[in-house]
Amino acid sequence: MIFKELHLANFGKFQNKTLTFKKGLNIIVGENESGKSTLFQAFLGILFGFKQDSKRYLPWQNPTSYKARLALDDNCTEIYLERDFLEDTVSFIQKENNHMSSFQYKASPLGRSAEREIYLNKIQDLFGFCEPEIFKHSLFIEQRSLHLPPQNQTATDVKQMISHISELKYDEICSRLEERYFEITKKNPSGLDKRNDRILEDLQKQILDLEEKIKKTRENQESLKKLSEKITNLKETITTKEIRLKAVTESLIAIEQLAKFSKKETEIKDSLNDLKKRKAIIERLTEQLTQIQKSKPQVNRLSIGLFIVSLFALPMIFFSANISIFWLILLFIAFSVLFGQHFYTQKKAQSHFQLQEMRVKSQLEVLPDPHKLDQTIEQHQKSLFEIEAQKIEFKQKVTDGNKAEKESLTQTLHQLRETHTIEKQNYIYFAKGLQSPFTLEEDLFDLKEKEKILRTKSRVLWLAKETLETMIIEFRKEHLKLFAKDMEKTFQIIAKDSYQNIAFEKETLTPSLEWQKTPISITSLSCGTQDQLYFSMKLSLLKHLGSDRHLPLFLDDPFVNFDHERRLKVLDLLKHYAKEHQLFLFTYDSWYSEKLGRNNIHEITL
């Protein structure tokens, strides 16, 4: 990647200023106040904007227009970055094979908008990283800033990039694993727990609540079961009492009915006896009537005939016999008396017969009809038979119960039914909102399974995070050792071979070293040696950060504390690095151009 051109439309003291650059070493030479530092800062400003120094580079002549543009060449792709510092917007233009794409982003350095993120991703694609602080501490070396170590976070990011872990974002993966872990649970295996509950704690609370709910449900189920048993017992007691009450009631009814039937039986028997007596009277009277009718006097027709014949024959006899009429009259009188007596006797007998017959018939008339009487007797006998059968049936229903027991049973049943109704209502009330413990246990089983999965997941996430962190630390240590070794070689070229075993502190990129195998503090070194140590570090960073990108390096007169000999060694190193990297050296001294040879550099004079 090559920076081809810098155009300052309105930036600081410059207006419509264009500088072109070439591969290799570009030296920008200018006296004090010529604008070298302004040009140096313009690169960073166009790429990332200014957080604090934006007003420092406001245009002197036209402050209403504050713009600058960079032109780059990345593998035959032309890229233009143009920033409007007043509007905090940046245009990103790409040209490739006659195809051009243009994007404009709201990319304030103080903001974290989505557009800024998109823009920074494009910077990431170009340079391999997009953090301004990394640029400042690696590719941009300012005056009097060589020995300024980066901040902790920047140092961590740089260490990632040294080991090329940043491109795979392993730290982000670790952070994400930790975030995912703490999304599941607040338990911190390596420190204080989080304050707010997470999914696992909420789930555990749900499990505890559900277990308590199941416990209460089971208690309620047990209470409901006891209540059900009580209701069943009440129902059985009510049924038993109802059966007993029915039996006592039926017994009392049977006793009443038996009394009625006994009374009715007595009445029917009395009536039957009366009817039988009447029947006997009728039979006797009928027999008498038959006997009377058999003794009915008969008229003696022969006597009457003889009397009549004699009445006519005797006179003829007497007249023929010439018997005296006296004797005829006497005979007639005698016959008349005899006939009269006979007629009287006959009449008297007839009257007696009629009297007896009339007396018997009159008695029979007041008596019922024998046929009907027989039917009535038969009905009475049938009724007596039915009454006897019913008495037998009711006698079977008769128990030892009495009215007092019936009243007691009735009162007890009334109380039992009221109790049964109340308990049944209580049962319905309790059962209405009661969930099945089996359903709750199924839910509990599901929750415990989820808890088990979450616990496993959290353990796996934490283990993965710790394992990955351990691997990253070990990986970085190895790469930091390589980086330190490369830095040591560069430093030994610039300084002396007596400085050895350069290493870095664990948290920062602050180096430590030995002098003649004796550990010494960096602060014990001279300012020039410290600058040379950190310059060696910057050159090694250029090599390790860029990987295959061949990143540029910007130097703003950083060698003021170097002696003549070591400055020459640095120039040799710059020549070497300029073969693969584009270098920008901002200086007031044309000595650098002379020593490097103007044919080997691209010199820009301000």
Folded structure, characterized:
- The strands form three sheets. The protein has a six-stranded antiparallel β-sheet with strand order 2-1-4-5-6-7, covered by helices on one side. Strands 8-12-13-3-14 form a five-stranded parallel β-sheet. A three-stranded antiparallel β-sheet has the order 9-10-11.
- The protein starts with a strand and ends with a strand.
- The protein has helices at residues 36-48, 114-127, 132-138, 152-162, 170-184, 199-294, 301-321, 325-366, 370-397, 403-432, 437-494, 527-546, 564-578, 591-596, and strands at residues 2-11, 14-20, 25-29, 67-74, 77-84, 89-96, 99-106, 140-141, 499-504, 511-515, 518-520, 553-556, 583-587, 601-605.
- It is built from 14 helices and 14 strands.
- Among the domains are: 1-128 and 549-606, 3-Layer(aba) Sandwich (Rossmann fold), CATH 3.40.50.300; 203-410.
- It is an alpha/beta fold and 606 residues long.
List the defining traits of the structure above.
Rossmann fold, alpha/beta, 606 residues, six-stranded antiparallel sheet, single chain, rod-shaped, 14 helices, five-stranded parallel sheet
